[in-house]
Design brief:
single chain, 170 residues, 7 helices, 73% helix
């Protein structure tokens, strides 16, 4: 009978939780795309800055008036779907190693790839948002993206911690 590894199980739970969270985000983006299209339009067109006489006037040349927010959202949703699938695969592989009690390279590579994709998503959002000055008028959105970068980095750090010292017999 397989021995459940108390050191590897939390890694599987973390990956599963992130996979569930991102799957729900994809579902929300598909079933309520209008909300994010509004936010994307505001950011890309820099309308909120253009309407303000003080903030961001020197940045307004960066506005994308002709780019479809709906197209951008579709690209984001595709990346989110790919990332969610990678997280699910990593979660299943990590659960497999948690059941066997021994970490293997495939599970760790899978987790690192999925978490790197997750991190890349939020870094692109942060950099793109900074380009369009969203921090001046859409701070809460930037806060969510920054929080998700931190979660990504902490997850990568945790998943890659060695487990040998935890496997000692007491």
């Amino acid at each position: 009978m397989a021995r459940l590894s108390a050191q590897l199980l939390p890694r599987a739970v973390l990956l599963t939780g992130l996979a569930v969270w991102l799957t729900i985000a994809v579902l929300n983006n598909v079933t309520d795309s209008g909300t994010n299209i509004i936010h994307l339009n505001r950011m890309l067109s820099m309308r909120l800055l253009a309407d303000d006489p003080l903030f961001g006037n020197g940045l307004e040349w960066r506005a994308w008036q002709t780019v479809s927010a709906q197209t951008i959202l579709y690209v984001v949703v595709v990346w989110q779907v790919l990332t969610a699938c990678a997280l699910w695969l990593a979660a299943f592989r990590m659960m497999g190693v948690a059941l066997s009690g021994e970490m293997n390279d495939a599970a760790l590579r899978s987790a690192n790839l999925a978490l790197s994709m997750f991190l890349a998503l939020w870094l692109v959002f942060l950099c793109g948002g900074l380009w369009f000055g969203y921090w001046m008028k859409q701070g809460p959105i930037q806060g969510v993206h920054l929080t998700l970068v931190i979660i990504s980095l902490l997850s990568l750090t945790y998943v890659n911690q060695p487990t040998q010292w935890l496997d000692r017999k007491y």
